[in-house]
């Protein structure tokens, strides 16, 4: 007896062996061109697929979910953050949403740490000096940055990624401060020698570095507002590997341009893939280091993300509860 395979529509090009396995297991329609689907193509996909596999570049909002046919049973996101999906609207229609947690934790934490060092030690400016043939030899006073050892790091969002950043930062001699909805387990606080702040406003003036590691939700949008940014020290550096929307990007740009904050390392932006021209001016001045949303961009990470998607779809197809189910939050 042949069992009918579920129709799975993948919105972007995934690693080859993930796609191959996807085709072996399911009736999978791939997007070999790797360009984001248009709104019309997405609307067509939700009318055809039993399982949609989107990424951060697809907006699966309430209006799109509204258009979904009754056959759409699952949205298996290729990614950890689900701010691209209206999880509440999906739940209302009985559509299961899953994500790919854990497998990108270490890579994203590496990226946060890398940006911290890159901004404070002027990696990009230094590399550019050589690339542009501007290096005239060693000098005692040229290209001086700031030491990170002995400084204080504040972490917003002490989940898996925030904790992984804290572990790395501790090894680099930073003392750890954090703000989170809930205090983490005492043994984690002990291990990290971390100081908990129940209000962000109290933590911000005390830290030299700030790493954003919370998800983007209605509650965290513009959490780092102009007002909050004004609480920070003029020498402070902000690192964002989470979502651009958590920071009021225009306010951050203003704060750095006017010397209220020293700089930033950003892997995510409010309107990706566009980077605001005023922010780019600060990049050119060496105050801001920007990367094109590369936090999870390792071969290993992307394969493991694919594995999570496969496992989630497979368990659902076998009538079990997918391990990475995402439920709507109160936000
Ligand atoms: C992913 C990310 O590459 O998983 C996330 O939340 O931000 C990225 O690192 C992206 O989401 C893929 O959809």
Properties at a glance:
12 strands, 13 helices, Rossmann fold, binds 2-keto-D-gluconic acid, five-stranded parallel beta sheet, globular, seven-stranded parallel beta sheet, alpha/beta, 331 residues
Structure in a nutshell:
The chain is 36% helix and 13% strand. The chain has 331 residues and is an alpha/beta fold.
CATH class of the largest domain: Alpha Beta
**What is the helix/strand order?**
EHEHEHEHEHHEHEHEHEHEHEHEH
Helix fraction bin: 25-40%
The major pleated sheet works out as:
7 strands, parallel
Low-confidence stretches: none
With strands numbered from the N-terminus, the spatial order across the biggest sheet is: 8-7-6-9-10-11-12
CA distance, first residue to last residue: 46 Å
Shape: globular
What share of residues are in beta strands? 5-15%
Structural class: alpha/beta
Mean pLDDT: 97
CATH superfamily of the largest domain: NAD(P)-binding Rossmann-like Domain
How many individual helices? 13
CA radius of gyration is: 22 Å
Number of strands: 12
Quaternary structure: single chain
In CATH terms, what is the fold-level topology of the largest domain?
Rossmann fold
CATH 2nd-level architecture of the largest domain: 3-Layer(aba) Sandwich
Number of domains: 2
Named once each, the bound ligands are: 2-keto-D-gluconic acid
SSE map:
Elements: E1 7-10, H1 16-25, E2 27-29, H2 39-48, E3 51-53, H3 62-67, E4 74-76, H4 87-92, E5 96-98, H5 105-120, H6 123-131, E6 152-156, H7 160-171, E7 175-179, H8 186-192, E8 195-196, H9 200-203, E9 209-212, H10 226-229, E10 237-240, H11 249-257, E11 263-266, H12 277-284, E12 288-290, H13 299-317
Parallel strand pairs: 1-2, 1-3, 3-4, 4-5, 6-7, 6-9, 7-8, 9-10, 10-11, 11-12
């Amino acid at each position: 007896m042949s069992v009918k395979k579920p129709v799975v529509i993948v919105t972007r090009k995934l690693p080859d062996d993930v796609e191959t396995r996807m085709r072996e297991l399911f009736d999978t329609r791939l997007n070999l061109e790797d360009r984001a689907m248009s709104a019309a193509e997405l609307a067509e996909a939700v009318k055809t697929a039993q399982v949609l596999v989107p990424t951060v570049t697809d907006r699966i909002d309430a209006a799109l979910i509204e258009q979904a046919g009754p056959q759409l049973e699952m949205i298996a996101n290729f990614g950890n953050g689900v701010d691209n999906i209206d999880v509440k609207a999906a739940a209302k229609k009985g559509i299961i949403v899953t994500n790919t947690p854990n497998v990108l934790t270490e890579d994203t934490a590496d990226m946060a740490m890398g940006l911290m060092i890159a901004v404070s030690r002027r990696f990009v400016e230094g590399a550019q000096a050589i690339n542009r043939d501007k290096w005239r030899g060693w000098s005692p006073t040229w290209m001086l940055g700031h030491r990170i050892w002995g400084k204080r790091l504040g972490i917003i969002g002490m989940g898996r990624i925030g904790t992984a950043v804290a572990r790395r930062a501790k090894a680099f001699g930073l003392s750890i401060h954090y703000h989170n909805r809930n205090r983490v387990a005492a043994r984690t606080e002990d291990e990290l020698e971390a100081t908990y702040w129940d209000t962000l406003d109290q933590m911000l003036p005390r830290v030299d570095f700030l790493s954003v590691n919370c998800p983007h939700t209605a509650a965290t949008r513009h959490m780092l507002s102009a007002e909050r940014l004004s609480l920070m020290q003029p020498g402070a550096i902000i690192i964002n590997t989470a979502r651009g929307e958590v920071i009021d990007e225009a306010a951050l740009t203003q704060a750095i341009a006017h010397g209220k904050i020293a700089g930033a390392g950003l892997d995510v932006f409010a309107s990706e893939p566009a980077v605001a021209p005023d922010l780019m001016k600060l990049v050119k001045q060496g105050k801001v280091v920007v990367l094109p949303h590369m936090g999870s961009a390792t071969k290993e990470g992307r394969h493991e993300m694919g594995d999570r998607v496969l496992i989630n779809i497979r368990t659902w197809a076998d009538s079990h509860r997918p391990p990475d189910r995402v439920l709507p939050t109160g936000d």
